[in-house]
DNA sequence: AGAATTGGTTGAGACGTTTCAAAAACCCCC
DNA sequence: GGGGGTTTTTGAAACGTCTCAACCAATTCT
């Protein structure tokens, strides 16, 4: 049923398959009359090209893979939109995959993408160990790191300076007079978490509360743990806004004042940060641009002549956005 | 480079291509020794199956399409996760597409999916006119409506009772004593918006403020317009939480009290609703389940023998969640 | 009028996999 | 050492598309 092939079209139009293919791919190489006849046959039969066959013949697909830590995180959906925009402009479709911060899922999706012979992969890797990626690349699949800096220049990458971001956040809190500051983190194996920490600790001490994931639930959990401390900090810097929102929820639920009792600074400046119970101070990243740039780099790398492609590392700067959730500590007793 | 084929594996292992294929697909039909030899060759060469070729041969792909209005909306990402879970269990990959509430983008993605010969399409359609979908289905592509009820029984569908949801929300506000209630909507061409309105107006009058899209910006816009009214309502029911958050932002920015000056009820109960400046009353939908069920239906339909598949319409019930954003109106003067 | 040019059209591979009937290799037993 | 049976392996065909050299028919040139 569903499958009408180019041959049936050719038969009906009374031409050869080559001609039908020409109508499809270089219409003006074929005489107007024939062209019309073929077009009509296509419509009548409801013919739709088989992309797999095209791909098989052409040797390259019109697809690109995007692997993120969690689509449920607004940061990544904004990034994904950027990727989508750039990919569409290049005539590519995007396969969006969720690693869920898990190595095995990441690997499974990479395998899948490779079987699909995607033109390349955009990925926010789960961990620093790039073994999986190296292998992929050795087999000729272009890989661009997303939201992660490629140190040794052997990948293209688009990132935001997370160390600087951490610095900005911590400096802001210290400037306000905070001395006991906690860092609420996701898994430290994530480069983002580690880098933001490195930046934050540069200016002074910092207590770490590492969670299991970069989401709201994990933030709530951290919030509870904060309250359990004998001598809780007067401010927390969270590795992303979801964690911050979780912490905030707990504080509000317990009747604590933010920033009166405790200041909170998030990271990413997702749209919901500004609309939170207490509008969240946060470190803003150019999310859409991040995705768009990464996709553009990938397209360029995929198009490049095999030899001598020079990997580019793009690094954007984050920006501190101060809102209501951060303020001076209560007068110290 | 990248492309090692089954034939090179065969050569290296000193067997025929048929045998390699057997090792891949029914390992125990091949003698242990040979199997090992082939496996080694595969590893040595870094061979990866070409999914397009498999698909071409098999006639059916291992992929399913999901078309949503906006990935940036947390409602849809949660739904998408449900779809992903179910699809993975069935060994299928998901291609996620954004129609952006635009007919042309929707059509473009449907074309793309059809060229990819996806096993089927899950879609929240942009408008009621099902012409695009009918055509798709006539060509043998299973289509399941998502978050949208298929009235005439000619599609499978998984939806939540939006009329009931609208009723719940409006009844709640009326019970609180509100008499002037506004409905902040997205485009009325979206069935969701229209149905929720129908439900809400069932119990009494309602003023409509239709916006251009179901997002926060559109909500802010509606908020501004609300404030411009000569005789503003004492409560608003929003077609989704993003709109509600937008309205809320404007109210808070203008120093109005919620629910004191104006009550707000949203729809979807996304995770951020509870964390909003004023925790949002909302109508909850089983998002994850919605996605999962839809994918399961699609898989079933795709597997079904061509003839006599009976389309199922699943309808879940929404649930009102009352939080702080809705309360009695100020004492009427 | 014949040669050369141009504009259209054709048909035979080839892409990488799977399938399946047929061939080959092996084993056991008389 | 030859038959019967089983287990392995083989090789060719097919999936739908695109490419490219070859071909055909008009036209234009000499």
UniProtKB/TrEMBL annotation, chains A, B:
Listed InterPro entries: HTH_LacI, LacI/GalR-like_sensor, Lambda_DNA-bd_dom_sf, Peripla_BP_I
Gene Ontology MF: a single term: DNA binding
Family annotation (SUPFAM superfamilies): lambda repressor-like DNA-binding domains (SSF47413), Periplasmic binding protein-like I (SSF53822)
Name of the protein this chain belongs to: LacI family DNA-binding transcriptional regulator
Keywords linked to the UniProt accession: DNA-binding, Transcription, Transcription regulation
PANTHER family: HTH-TYPE TRANSCRIPTIONAL REGULATOR GALS, LACI-RELATED TRANSCRIPTIONAL REPRESSOR
Domain HTH lacI-type residues, every copy: 4-58
Protein's UniProt keywords contain DNA-binding: yes
UniProt organism field: Cryptosporangium japonicum
CDD domains on file: HTH_LacI, PBP1_LacI-like
Gene3D superfamilies: 3.40.50.2300, lambda repressor-like DNA-binding domains (1.10.260.40)
Transmembrane segments: none
Keyword Transcription: yes
UniProt xrefs under Pfam families: LacI (PF00356), Peripla_BP_3 (PF13377)
